[in-house]
Amino acid sequence: MNIDKLLDTKGLACPMPIVKTKKAINELTAGQVLEIHTTDKGAKNDLTAWAKSGGHKLLKYEEANDVLKFWIKKG
Asked: Any idea where the UPF0033 domain is (predicted)?
């Protein structure tokens, strides 16, 4: 998978991962992929719902060593 931008929000609590994700995705063009790393456990539900409501596509999600990773394709 080609990643166009990596966003590290580890250590930040809600709502900052969503706020930073929104800012980062706005810097991309449609079809580009944003990879997000976070330690906020609420981000799984938050980012999934945010991507869907914003017209973006959650391509992949994984969790390893207390880090949640998301790949979102800009709609």
From this structure: 7-31
Q: What share of residues in the chain are helix, strand, coil (percent, to 5)?
A: 30, 35, 35
Catalytic residue flag (residue 14): yes
Q: How many domains does the chain have?
A: 1
What confidence tens digit (pLDDT) does each residue in 9-67 have?
999 998 999 999 999 999 999 999 999 999 999 999 999 999 999 999 999 999 999 99
The active-site residue out of 13, 14, 49, 67 is 14
Full residue range of the structural domain in which residue 14 is found: 5-73
CATH number, domain at 68?
3.30.110.40
